[in-house]
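Morning, I've got a small favour to ask if you have a moment. Here's the protein in full, and shout if anything looks odd to you:
***
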Amino acid sequence: MPATLDQQTLPKLTNEEIARYSRHLILPEVGMEGQQKLKAAKVLSVGTGGLGAPMALYLAAAGVGTIGLIDFDVVDESNLQRQIIHSESTVGMLKVDSAELMLKGLNKNTKIVKHNTMLTSANALDIFKDYDIIADGTDNFQTRYLVNDACVLSGNKPNVYASIYRFEGQASIFATEAGPCYRCLYPEPPPPGLVPSCAEGGVLGILPGLLGIIQATETIKLILGLGDPLIGRLLLVDAAAMAFRTLKLRKNPECPLCGTHEIKELIDYDQFCGIPKPTELGPLEVSSHGKTADLAVVDGIPQMSVEQLKSRIDAGTAPFVLDVREAHEYAIVDIGAPLIPVGELAQNLHRLTFPKTTEIVVHCKSGARSQRAALILRENGYTNVSNLSGGILAWADRIDKSLPKY
């Protein structure tokens, strides 16, 4: 890490940089040498979304010399509620390009390296090798395990971690020699669909800003070698109560990655996290290019396209459609289906007064919760259940464009 560099190898500051970082330079804990360490540092932000946006902005402002950005998404208007590195003028632009515009506008001296790609087991080690610190701003378990494993296998590169959900967040530093890795805390991922994503469960817009700034703070502390970093500690944030708690974490000697070192290479993280793969061909769905593609049968549940459901409705042969979102989502938009939230479904099956052989199509916002609801129905004896692929978002995109999307 840059903090271990000999002072003679550190890059010099220009007069313009001395003026720019003067508030740092007069801090005895930073000074000239500390600012030079920041200039020499190379940090990779995995994601330029809610967490990566404030984190990258403050790292650039602080004078971190090289910031890598890895993201394959494009800017959407729904991002702007929390992803402050993007703007209305960059909607539709690649996120790495949008982020670069903002970062270079903030600090022309920072070198921005763009990786417009999905992070995978095939490319992670090659990308990580050029950076000192990896900051994980991802929102799914597959990538969190991938980032963690790649950090350990890259020689214990610090993994500055944070996650957010609704009003709560957590942060820590994993994968260092001195502390635990992410697998020490979470040896196994939760079952698919059990923990909703921010897109499904929502997030207070300011929360990723709070956690992203914590990530930036911890990254700068690591570079400067000062303070007490969150190694071996998990910071829990409750924004609704504005309460902070810290839990002590210990390295697990039986951890297959950083303990026994059984894991020697990156694996299939979709498979590890139980992300279902197509098991057989299902009904046909029309793609955005006008072609048809086979929809999968996932865990025994056929996946129905919105086009297929619309065709059935128009023909007068519509199945029973059940909405399993929350009541506050139903208030935003609905397609006329009765509502039983997925968390209340098992206790409210008596409301389904028809035979268990009746054809049922379940929908939610995008298809994840409705898949879980379909499994609940099947486990309770309903034999003809399908999941609406893409949920009400797909319906609003491809069937009724007058509906609002959220």
Remarks:
- Residues 41-272 form a domain with the Rossmann fold fold (CATH 3.40.50.720).
- The first strand starts at residue 42 and ends at 46.
- Confidence is low (pLDDT under 50) at residues 1-5, 278-294.
- The chain is about 30% helix and 20% strand.
